[in-house]
Amino acid sequence: MAIFLLGFFILITLINILFFIGYFSFASAKESTSTSTPPVSVIICAKNEAENLKDFIPFILEQTYPNFEVILVNDASIDNTLEVMEQFEALDHRLRLVNVQNNEAFWGKKKYALTLGIKKAKNSTLLFTDADCRPESKLWISEMASNFEPNKTIVLGYGGYLKNKGSFLNKLIRYETLLTAIQYFSFAKWGIPYMGVGRNLAYTSQEFYNQNGFATHLHIKSGDDDLFVNQAGTQHNTAITFNKSSITRSIPKTNFSNWILQKRRHISTAKFYKKKHKFLLASFYLSQVGFWILLTSLLILKIYWPMVLGIFLLRLIIQYTVYYKSAKKLDEMDLLWLIPFLEVFLIFTQLSIFSMNVFSKPTNWK
């Protein structure tokens, strides 16, 4: 029995390590040197985001890009979001508004509102972000747009979260976001892109129409970003950018219940991914769960504990090497010393979210 547990632990750890080694494809990647400058339409869909729009729209308008417009989509807000948008529109000719009324067939569906925003755009290069999101640099549009080439119609960027040094929840949210980015950037480098984040995502209108928009998953509440990339992304048409000037950061949740609700919506879309993506993601997650359960069990039972500790340290060194390189690229270095604790907490939080989603459906996006 002891030998069996040790052997299973070694197997699970090897699977985990293979994924970390695979993630080197992003961690060791070099930045693009392209200088493409197509006209860009920045699209921001907002529902009850009046205060955030006041704070963050100026960051968009300060971009140094030579040719861009901003499409503000009011998704049937009940606060004064529309009034705030109209005030900005009156001050800057680059802003254009789409006011979405409640529609019985598409009520509460962000994908419907986004589709109207895309149809309003006059440029074929579309760049998406959220109302509570700000670019880290005045070169954000430039960095995202420069990755478009004749054969590159989708660009995945990093959408991080603003830092709150004294908050464990903030670090957990940013760690989960970092890990997700490592995965979707690495998968894209492997030639099997599976998702992007709507806080920092770009694609061409031609790609959107080639895919018939969101038609295949319009009935699903979330997934305007990850399900679209999962459907449309290929090894040939998808580019990634991780230059610090291309990063955006959003306001994170400040209590666990709101964050759990947000993650329930996000995780609920994963079952609609392609089978190969689901297999790889599930394999990595289960190898993590198995590693920590077996590690704890073997140490408590004192089964070959010196060897078990050696295996743990080997995994930790490889993991830290990959995460260090990735965190340095994405400016998340303060998370490194907490990685083992954040990893364990996130794994079992996700397990509880999976369980909750089995018994009840998450609510709409707003």
From TrEMBL:
SUPFAM superfamilies in alphabetical order: Nucleotide-diphospho-sugar transferases
Q: Which UniProt keywords apply?
A: Membrane, Transmembrane, Transmembrane helix
Q: Say which domain of life the source belongs to.
A: Bacteria
Residue intervals of the Glycosyltransferase 2-like domain:
41-172
Q: Which residues cross the membrane?
A: 6-26, 279-297, 303-323, 335-359
Q: Which Pfam families match?
A: Glycos_transf_2
User: What name has this protein been given in UniProt?
Assistant: Glycosyltransferase 2-like domain-containing protein
